[in-house]
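Standup notes
- DV: blocked on the single-chain target, sequence here:
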Amino acid sequence: MAANIIELLGKEADHLLNHECKTITKDQIHLPSPNHLDDIWINSNRSNQTLNSLNELINHGRLAGSGYLSILPVDQGIEHSAGASFAPNPIYFDPENIVKLAIEGGCNAVASTFGVLGIVSRKYAHKIPMMVKINHNEFLSLPNKFDQVMFGQIKSAWNMGATAVGATIYWGSDNSTRQLQEVATAFEMAHELGMATVLWCYTRNNGFKVDGVDYHTSADLTGQANHLGVTIQADIIKQKLPTNNGGYNATKHGKTSPLVYSKLTTDHPIDLTRYQVANCYMGRVGLINSGGESKGASDLAESVITAVVNKRAGGMGLILGRKAFQRPIAEGIQLLNTIQDVYLDKSITIA
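- DV (later): unblocked, structure below
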């Protein structure tokens, strides 16, 4: 194992690298592999064109042929405002630099808006798989609201040469039923046109905060969000890394089982993430975890920890944006490459 990975893990190295998952064991899940398409999707209802798109995603960049994914997402100009996102590094107001970072960073794909990818699509559609994010929460309305709305048509993504489309559903929100219906319809059209589909499976409800504890990233609630996401036939699920558990018990809504907490999970981050994987049809649908906001000097270490947890839990990779583009481009490339090294390192095994 590379010495820099051990160093970056710091005091967490033994805790993360030597953990054995005894809740849902690795022989019970479908693991990422170079044969992912043949093992999982060849027998599905996905069309030949969609299989080809999935193949393009899996076989591009530094992780090509490994079964793992490293994706650069830059939709934060809408979700968090352009100023908040790009002021730390203004070159990314220019969409071409976003695509260049993904290419030079060895990513499998670049995910961004209709506008960002459309304006440079003729130059880059054949150079890197493009994933068009089709809905957003615009952050200009006063008061701020949290509602994912469609920003364009699926055929527009197809016309610009996109390999995949991505969408967000805020599960648990007042608008989640409408979002579910819109995204399910959009994903069906994307599959008809031969594109892959990726769902940002986020929870959103003030009721998920109980007695000062935020359960938006609890393993049980995010796990159910994943299960809803694969039900509408997302090919890949994007989810935040779990930070706690017991969301259902705290909110006292919905249904759960005591076995979720006594048999299927522990408080170890790899076991919690394994439960997220289990809710993606036991890993048949790949789980990619998100990198989160940039916090400065600690970004590289935090990203490596997230990658190790995701990989050892049976996840399919990382989708990381702000930690990469809110710094000088050379540092962003180095950060992306270090994360990719975790997935290429055969000594970092499945727990």
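- Follow-up: Residues 3-343 form a domain with the TIM Barrel fold (CATH 3.20.20.70).
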